[in-house]
From TrEMBL:
<dbReference type="InterPro" id="IPR016024">
    <property type="entry name" value="ARM-type_fold"/>
</dbReference>
<protein>
    <submittedName>
        <fullName>Uncharacterized protein</fullName>
    </submittedName>
</protein>
<dbReference type="InterPro" id="IPR000225">
    <property type="entry name" value="Armadillo"/>
</dbReference>
<feature type="compositionally biased region" description="Basic and acidic residues">
    <location>
        <begin position="1"/>
        <end position="10"/>
    </location>
</feature>
<feature type="region of interest" description="Disordered">
    <location>
        <begin position="1"/>
        <end position="21"/>
    </location>
</feature>
<dbReference type="InterPro" id="IPR011989">
    <property type="entry name" value="ARM-like"/>
</dbReference>
Length: 549
């Protein structure tokens, strides 16, 4: 029952008329920007232009092609808006609107617009806080793409943004956005060079270390964490006091699980991943701080994981292993790993980091004896994890436990302790597991047996009694030609060496495993023949049995 719809032709005609009116207004605005010297006229024209571009997207192309956009850039460069902050704000808003379409972005990158916006940041007090804040938003969009890196470098935008942050001119959210711009750009080595040379690290450290928590401090910590991931900046940041600043945030917030403390922990983790930073960080008390946090009762697990990762990384340096073990790092890693085992799936990540830490700590002759004699039970923990307790067969957890057992099995003072800790049944189970044939898990178990087999007396007897001959024989038969089979043959050769064992070894089928390998040329043949020669040196009964078999 309403009125009839308008004719299509009349609707099209109305749209065309409206578009002509917009183009007329665009030309009028362009004339004002090109000729007028009155700041009030400039301000009014720029606001009209911004509204026009927002309401009619079809005017954006002509705005560029007719030179109106260039007039806006000139207006910014020459401050034709005078002291009117509203005019400068409108000019920046025009540029931000134009940047949203590909043609406008290309015009900005190829022209002088980016440099003009950098000038707004440098002279924030002249252009007004609002215009500077709007310019920061433009730079945030530009910094999101690596394609714009060159123009930002050429225009001095990095230095301008850093000056803006140093002066805290924007206040509140603008400073936070400016820090985000710097973080986006810091993926470039050229930008990182500018930041170092222009005091960027010191500025970030000052913000992060201030006693005024908030978004600005949080973003500064994100920037520091990001910069600390760059290999060339780790030592530089350490020398400029980054550890002390990060540790302040860690100590203040880890107990309650703040985001700031977690970021600071990740920053320390990034810093420690360099051979030249580990020892100085030990001297600055990082070990004690991490151990203290790991021992604290109410630390959130995500923070605990980061603390253990830091310890794990520090333990890769030869000069840090002994002091770390002396200060209880191995005992704490065992305690946390046992707690993580009780948590099931929720504790898997923490358990893995603890096992990695123990593995790194064990790679030093002076730490092994302390670790295996620990009242916390390093070897029993490794035995549990090497059997796959709490994880699937073939998992990283199982692998790192086996690697640590292999490492601890080297040295006269530790072999018996490893055996007493219950390692042999676990090593036998993994070495002879057909499902793990050819894997690194099997290789580590075989290597551990080989290390232990180099010992004499009671250790070697325990290996034979524990079924190592059968497990190694299975490893030689069930794996293809390669490292696993070769190491298994070497371990058998170690067991065969000496006059006290041949008869037992022959009875357990050692000769059959070796004779098959001795018949075929390859890497294993030499060691198989050597092992058979050891067996031949036994008593007459053993030799007769050997010939019979």
């Amino acid at each position: 029952g309403g009125s009839a719809p308008p004719e299509r032709d009349s609707w099209i005609g109305g749209a065309q008329e409206s578009q002509r009116a917009d183009m007329t207004e665009l030309s009028e605005i362009g004339g004002i920007l090109a000729r007028s010297g009155d700041p009030e006229d400039f301000s009014s024209a720029l606001n009209r232009l911004h509204r026009l571009l927002e309401t009619d997207i079809s005017t954006q192309g002509p705005c560029i092609s007719q030179g109106v956009a260039d007039s806006v850039v000139v207006a910014l460069e020459e401050r034709k808006g005078g002291l009117l902050a509203e005019a400068h704000l409108a000019a920046v808003k025009v540029l931000r609107t134009l940047m949203r379409n590909p043609e406008g972005l290309q015009w900005m990158v190829q022209g002088r617009a980016v440099a003009a916006l950098s000038g707004v940041l440098r002279r924030c007090e002249d252009y007004g806080k609002s215009a500077a804040q709007e310019a920061v938003i433009v730079f945030l969009s530009l910094s999101a793409s690596r394609a714009n890196e060159d123009v930002l470098l050429r225009s001095g935008s990095v230095e301008a943004m850093l000056d803006f942050v140093k002066g805290a001119q924007g206040g509140g959210q603008a400073d936070v956005l400016a820090l985000k711009v710097l973080m986006n750009l810091s993926s470039s080595a050229n930008v990182r060079t500018i930041l170092v040379g222009s005091g960027g690290i010191e500025t970030l450290l000052a913000i992060a270390g201030s006693d005024e928590p908030g978004d600005r401090q949080l973003q500064a910590l994100k920037n520091l964490m990001n910069l600390a991931a760059s290999m060339e900046l780790k030592v530089e940041m350490l020398n400029r006091g980054a550890v002390q600043v990060l540790m302040k945030s860690i100590q203040a917030g880890t107990a309650t699980g703040t985001e700031e403390s977690l970021l600071a922990l990740k920053g320390v983790m990034n810093l420690v991943c360099h051979q030249d930073t580990k020892v100085p960080m030990v001297e600055q008390g990082v070990i004690e701080a991490m151990l203290s946090l790991c021992s604290a009762g109410e630390v959130p697990q995500e923070h605990q994981v980061q603390c253990v990762r830091i310890l794990m990384s520090m333990a890769t340096h030869r000069d840090t292993k002994v002091p770390m073990v002396e200060r209880g790092a191995a005992d704490i890693a065992v305690t946390l790993a046992l707690e993580a085992l009780q948590q099931g799936e929720a504790g898997r990540e923490l358990q893995l980091e603890c096992l990695k830490t123990l593995m790194n700590l064990s790679a030093h002759m002076e730490t092994k004896a302390t670790m295996v004699s620990s009242s916390k039970g390093v070897v029993p923990l490794l035995v549990r994890c090497a059997l796959g307790d709490g994880s699937a067969r073939g998992s990283d957890h199982q692998l790192h436990a086996l690697r640590t057992l292999t490492s601890l099995s080297v040295g006269e003072s530790v072999e018996q302790a490893v055996v007493d800790g219950g390692a042999i049944p676990t090593l036998v189970a993994v070495a002879g597991d057909a499902g793990l044939a050819g894997t690194e898990h099997q290789l580590q178990a075989v290597n551990a047996i080989m290390n232990l087999s180099a010992a004499g007396g009671a250790v070697k007897q325990a290996l034979v009694d524990g079924g190592c001959v059968e497990a190694l024989g299975a490893a030689t038969r069930g794996t293809p030609e390669g490292e696993n089979r070769l190491q298994a043959v070497k371990a058998l050769a170690n067991l065969c060496a000496g006059r006290e064992m041949p008869a037992q070894l022959v009875e357990r089928g050692c000769a059959e495993a070796l004779s098959g390998l001795a018949r075929h040329a390859g890497g294993c043949q030499e060691h198989a023949v050597k092992a058979l020669s050891y067996l031949c040196s036994g008593d007459e009964g053993a030799r007769d049995e050997l010939v019979y078999r």
